[in-house]
Every structure is written in structure tokens, then in C-alpha cells.
Amino acid sequence: MDQWDDSDKLLLLQKYTGGRIPPLVDVNDPDAGLIHSDLLRIYHRGLHSLHAIRLGILLAASSTSSPYEKWFNGNFGLNEWAREDWPSFCKTLRKRELGEQACDGCDRLRAVMAEREGRAIAYLCANGLIDFAVPVSVMGQVIAVLLSGQCQPQPGPVWNPELIQPNGCFRPLAPGESGVDAWGESQRRISAIEDAAGLESGTLLSCLAEDVASHHTTQITPAGVERMLNQIQLAGQLLSDLATRTFERDKSNLVGWIRGHIAGSLKPLSSTSASTEAVWRALSVGLGYMACYFGLDYVVILACEGDLKERQPILCQFGLPEGQRWNWDQKPGIEQTMSHMRHTVRAQEGFTPLVLKEYAGVPLFAWLRERHARRGTKTTLATSLVATAEDNPPLLILGRFDQDIDPAALLPIDRAALTSIVGDIALVAEVVMLVERLRQQARQRTRFIQELAHELYNPMQNIIVEAECLDSAPVSEIRRLVRELVADVRRLQRTSERVWALENIDQAAYAPDRTEWVNVYQVVMNCRKSLAELAEEQGIEIYVEPELAKCPKVRVNKALLVLSVQNLLDNAVKYSRPKTTIRIEGKPTAEGLCLSVGNRGIQIQPEDFERIFERNYRTKEARLHRPEGTGIGLCFVKAFADRYGGIEVRSTPIEGTRDYLTVFKLTIRERSY
Amino acid sequence: MALVLFLEDEPNLVRNLPLLLKPKGLDLVATTSIQEAMEWFGEHTYDAVLLDTIMRPTEDMDAEALDHGLMTGVEVARRMKLLKPQVPIIALTVMHDPEIQRRMREAGIVDIINKPAEPDQIAEVVLRNIRRG
What residues of A are in contact with residue B116 (Cβ under 8 Å)? Predict the structure, then answer.
């Protein structure tokens, strides 16, 4: 709440919180209703002046959905100044407690009727006068009833029979229908209430006569009632329209403001050094506004599936305890549960209700379930935050502890707002994830450049020193120096070739249609020879199984195959334990052959089995073993494997040692280009 | 003749650079092992230390914090500085990035020679820092 700086919008948010419809008018706070109380007073005066209509307003109680309770728990708004215009009949009767109760009770009952009818009604009130009631509604919901009337029915059998029934309404007599004398019934009811309220007999009748004589009350005919009904109907309609326009305008402003906050949460990204954490923090404020608007207890954004390995997969949230951590990676089966959840949510459009009990294995959901259960609810809502075709989008989870939410039950205006706001959140999440991916790539690129510098500058430094040493070296040292110089030149050459190849992988030399029949055994033996010196330095033997020589030729791009085999062997030599053997095997298959390269050395973790083929990616173990290294070698292998078959890697521990047996299996299928 | 401890993981350079720098007044005691270098540094008196920055971290180092080896030499320099702050430490490095070089200086490295460098240049920088000290 401290971060909310738009105080007027804050007040508006509180007025409309939880999807409520504010009262038509608030008797205590002029700004808390849909219509200012002064405006209503002007409206009342105008109606009275123009059409002799006196208004009372019965406001609905907003906390109940029962029409009966709504009116019986509702309050009478603004009746104090409206009362000034009432006839003496009403003023006298309401001075008695029983009279006031009888009037109020009748008014409330007729409010129920008016709401049910959905239009202006006229009726003979409990105390003998003809009154009118018309509903005032906003977005199809009746929030108030205007009450008016206090007319005396004309004598004579001119009234429809239902009028004098306890819950009856006025309607014109049908042709040929026999009318009843409502005036007689009116007299009877007046006498009855005089008696019940403890008034002297004839008091109210005298008041009524006086009111009629002074034109405070009208003796009304059925035609007069019909005219009044039209006027009252119009009065109710005008008020409904005014309230609805105010409601729609305020809601639109609020939703625009919330959406502005959500979009504005991207602002920190305008600074290249700003972390994406700042965006999530800003977005959480927007989630808070969203929660207030829809009356939610929590709104949570869960990270993509790949990020489940992180301890804290909640990207952004509102409603969860501050500083709460969720240890997701220690729960067995959690990945399957989350996968099932995502699948369930992705299968549906819009929001999916999730039964919390089914996901109680997930720490966050266990926490939510406990709180929901305390208030008797069982489900939360989830949706995918998909702005583009993203395979693993984040999930948005939201809910209320005390109520199962159904988006379909929201007002149309709120349903549209929810869709828009969720769409905006999805866009923000998409942008943040994109920026994180780009920054990650930039970091990898920087790392690649640093490691490339090592692979280029170190051999260069060696060459400079070796060359200068040659100038003054004794004869006995010349051979050694020349050998070292040549090795460094070759090292420089290999690095340069790899970098060049990396940048030109799709170009002519490696084009898919440049294929020829290739003897894989010969390629392997040539690569083995080129790495002999490097292997010998560490006491590593490269053993090629004789069966490989019997394998058939394959039709592939030779340059790419050579590059792939070279890099597989190079990696094997670099990451092998000294004085071990690298084994190369080949087996013919129905479509070509399968080449495997196995070595004993550092581990490749299962989660890196696919990543090691990414450009510039190096595992933690590889970096520790050889801080230099560019991480580009295996991407050539992948490029070859993608075209001609496939590549698999496994790394299994060797019992009794700290070493791992790592085997790369390259499947080669012939291509008939 | 100035005595200089030389720590570098390129075996060729460890073998050959001392041959070139001896006639220029620098007696390089060279090793590829961080452990060995720390032992010798503690036990003997050197006029300067010349070290590479990218090396495999030792087991007692936080590999993640050292960016998996890219900043190992910086950590070695830091430890040496704690032991004998008066000995000038010079980096012979492929890391030309100004930000990384700033971190090297913060760790106590007084001068930085960018690889690839001429042996004369290496000698000049080392001798200058010895004289300054």
C-alpha cells in the first residue's frame, strides 16, 4: 500500500474493490456512491416541481444476493430531506413506531416486487394509499428502488381486483372486466392502522382530507396512475443510466490505470544494467491492484517448467507471506505433478479451476490448500501466460480463500478487464523472459570471447617466446623449440578453423548437398593422428576397434564429418584422466553406421546431456578441469548429427573411482543427395 | 639479478620464458602449480611475482566465485598480497577487458601485461616495478 502514489485512484479502487457495485448514493459520504447526494437532491426537487413526484430511495444492501434480504437489510437513503415534502398523513403515521414499521415493511416488500417486475409498479400500500416503486439498476443489477406516490384512489369500482390483494399491483382494467372499489379498501386500511398504531379514530382520515384539499395529496384515477407510472418509469430509467455511465467510466479508468501500472513495470529495463528483478518487483504492485480490483487474496506467477530446478520458481506474487521460500527441488515427484498441472491448464482456454488437494505435493499449493480449507473452499484458478507460441509459459495462479471464483460469473465489464489485464501480464512476462534470454546469450558470448582470447593469445605468446629462443638457443634445444613452435602454430590454426567454421556452418563447405561417399574409419584414423601429440603429452592412448574398418562407407558432407570426429576426439583427450585409453568403436546399422567414442574422465551431468551441444556452453566440470576452452566444439557434432542421424551421450560413474565413463554415440544414416 | 616467481599454466612458456629473461637481469623461478607457487612464495624471498590469471582453481578455492578459473590468478594474487604485501605482483594475461583488469588491481596486482607481449616488454615492466618497490 505504501507504494501506491495515485491517491485518487486508490480511493476509486477501494470504492470498486472486489467487483462490488457501489451504492447508488451514500448517505454519509457524498463521493462514495455512484451519484453525488447533492445531485440526487436536485433530481428530487426537479421531479417534485415538474411532476409532483415525491421520492424516497431504498438502497440495496450489497452484501447479500437474496432479493428479499437485500431490501429488508437495505437502508433508506436521503429520506430525511425527502420527508419534508411528504403529506401530513404520512408524517402523522410515521410518528408512531408501529406506523413507521408498517410503512417501512410495505416499502421493502414492494421493492422486492419492483425488482422482480423490472419496471415501475403501482400498488395500494398497507396503509391505504396508492404508491409507486421503480427499480434503479446498473449492469443488470438492481441497486436501489425509487419510491413515490401517496395518492388516494378515486372512489368507484374502477380498479383492477389485484390492486386490493395484499401483494397486488395496479394494471388497467381489461375490456369487459369488472372493477373493484379501491377507495373503500383504502378507508378500511386507514382505519385499521389508526387502531393498530394507537391513533384516535379519524385522525389519519382527517389528515388525508386536508392533504387532498391542499393538493399535497392527489385523488388519483386509473388514468392518472398510468400517467404517473410512465413518469416514474422514466425517472428510474434516467437515474439508472446516470449511475451506469458513472460506473462504466470509473471502471474503465481503474482498469486503464491498473494496465498502465502493469505495462510500466517494464520501465526498469530501459537501463541496460537494471536487473529483471526490478521488473518483477514493479509488477507485483500491479498484481496487488489487480487483486484489490477483483477481490482476490493472492495472485502468483510461476516460472516456466525449465526453471523448476531453481529453488524459487515464483517470479512474482501478491498475497503470499513476504520472504517465504519454497523448496521445490527437494520434493520427489514434484516435476511430474507440475507437468500434469501445466498440461491440464494448457488444454483449456481461459482459466482452469485446479483442485488444490490434487497438487498438495507442490509446496505452494500445500500452503494454499491449508488456507482455502480453513474458509471452506477447495479450488484455485490457473491460466497460461501465453503471449506468443511459447512451449513452457509461466502460469498465473489466483484465488480467494473464502470463495471459489468463477470468471464466467463476473460482470461482462469485469470479465473483459480480467482478460485484458492477464494479457498485459503475459506480455510483461514474455518481454522479461526474452530479455533474460538475450542477456544470458550476451553473457555467454562475452565468456566465449574471453575463452577464445585465451586460445588465441596464449599460443601467440608461446610462439613469440619460442621464436626468440630459437635465435640464441643451443643446438640441443633447437629441435624441442621447433616442435613446440609447430604445436603452438597448429593449436592456433585449430582454434582459427573452429571459429571460422562456426561462423560459416551453413555456408558452402558444409552445405547439405555437398555429399560424397566417405570412409569413416579413414577419417577417424586421420583425426587420431592429428591429436597424437596432444594425447601423448598426457599419456592417453586412442584405441580404434578394428571392426570400424569393416564398416561400409556413408554418403555425407565430409568436411562436417571430419570436424565432428575431430571435436569428439579433441574433447575426449582434453577431459580424460591421464594415462587412460579412449576407445572408438563402429557398428554397421541398417541405414549406415553407429560411431561411439568413450573416455574415462570428468563427469557430464544428466541435465547437461543436451546443453553441451549448445554453442558456447561449457559445463561446470569442464570449466573446472580446463578454465580455457571455447565451448564450440560439440556444436559441430550436433550440426552433423541433426543432418545425418543423431547423437547421444551418457556419463556413468566408474565404481571405486572418482572418474566417469563418458560415451558419445553418433548415428550416421546415409543420404542420397 | 632479480629473483622472480613465475606462475603460468602453459608448460611451453614455463620452460622457455626464463631462458629469454635471464640475460635481461631476471631469474625466473617457474611453475605450473598454484600449490607449489604458494609454498615457494612463503618459503623464499622474491623481488616480484609474474603470474597468469586463467588457471584451474585449487580445491580450496570457490570455483564459482572465480568464474570457473577465469579469475584464479586474481585470487592467488590476493593471497600472496596478504602474506607479503611488499612484493609487487604483475599479471601476464589474455584478459584485456578493462573491468576485469580493474578487479585485478583491486586484488593487489600492480601492473598488467597483455598477452601476447614481447619478452623485452615483459622484462621492462617487471624490472620497473621491482625498482619502484
Answer: 457, 460-461, 463-464
Out of A469, A488, A628, the one facing B20 most closely (by C-beta) is: A469
Question: Is the CB of residue A257 less than 8 Å from the CB of residue A188?
Answer: no
- Pull the grid cell for residue A378: 477447495
Q: Which of A419, A500, A141, A97 is nearest to A255 (CA)?
A: A419
Task: Count CA atoms within 13 Å of residue A523 on its CB side.
Answer: 24
Angle at A87 between CA A85 and CA A91, to 5 degrees: 95
Asked if A465's CB is within 8 angstroms of B17's CB, the reply is: yes
Is the pLDDT assigned to residue A637 strictly greater than 60? yes
Residue A455 to residue A295: CA distance in whole angstroms: 60
- Residues A556, A539: Cα–Cα separation, whole Å: 33
CA–CA separation, A299 and A284 (whole Å):
9
Burial class of residue A181 (count of CB atoms within 10 Å of its CB; 0-12, 13-18, 19+): middle
Lowest mean pLDDT, pick from A179-193, A304-318, A381-395, B94-108:
A304-318
Q: List, as one string, the DSSP characters of chain B.
A: -EEEEEE-S-HHHHHHHHHHHGGGTEEEEEES-HHHHHHHHHHS--SEEEE-S--PPPTTS-TTTTGGGTTHHHHHHHHHHHH-TTS-EEEEES---HHHHHHHHHTT--EEEESS--HHHHHHHHHHHHHH-
Mutate to test the interface with A, among B7, B16, B19, B92 (most CBs of A within 10 A): B16
Report the sign of the C-alpha dihedral through residues B114, B118, B121, B127, in that order: positive
Distance from C-alpha of B86 to C-alpha of B74, rounded to nearest angstrom: 17
Contacts of B68 in chain A (CB under 8 A): 618, 620, 623-624, 627
Distances (CA, A) of A185 to A124, A127, A181, A205, A217: 9, 10, 7, 13, 18
CA A407, CA A396: separation in Å to the nearest integer? 14
**Is the four-CA dihedral A155, A158, A161, A163 of positive or negative sign?**
negative
| pLDDT tens digits, B13-46 | 999 999 999 999 999 999 999 999 999 999 999 9
- 419-478 in chain A: CB under 8 A from chain B: 450-451, 453-454, 456-458, 460-466, 468-469, 473
Q: Nearest to residue A289, comparing CAs of A424, A413, A412? A: A424
The predicted complex's ipTM stands at 0.93
Q: Do A466 and B19 touch (CB under 8 A)?
A: no
Q: With contacts defined as CB-CB under 8 Å, which chain B residues touch A618?
A: 68
Contact B117 A458 (CB under 8 A): no
DSSP A566: H
Q: Which of A461, A473, A625 lies nearest to residue B117, judging by beta carbons?
A: A461
* Beta carbons of A458 and B94 less than 8 Å apart: yes
Angle (deg, nearest 10), helices A412-472 and A475-503: 160
Provide the whole-model pTM: 0.70
Look at strands A645-653 and A660-669 and give their pairing: antiparallel
Averaged pLDDT score across all residues of chain B? 91
Chain B: closest CA distance from residue A473 (Å): 9
Answer whether A624 sits within 8 Å of B12, measured CB to CB.
Answer: no
C-alpha dihedral sign at B42, B44, B46, B49: negative
Contacts with A, B 28-57, CB within 8 Å: 54-57
Close Cβ partners of A202 (under 8 Å, ≥ 6 residues apart)? A194
Determine the distance in angstroms separating the CA of B37 from the nearest CA of chain A, rounded to an integer. Answer: 19
Total beta-carbon pairs less than 8 A apart between chain A and chain B: 81
All residues of chain B having their beta carbon less than 8 Å from the beta carbon of residue A464 are 116-119
Longest dimension (CA), chain A: 144
Residues of chain A with C-beta less than 8 angstroms from the C-beta of B70: 450-451, 627
Q: Where do the H-state alpha helices sit in A473-588? A: 475-503, 520-530, 532-537, 558-574
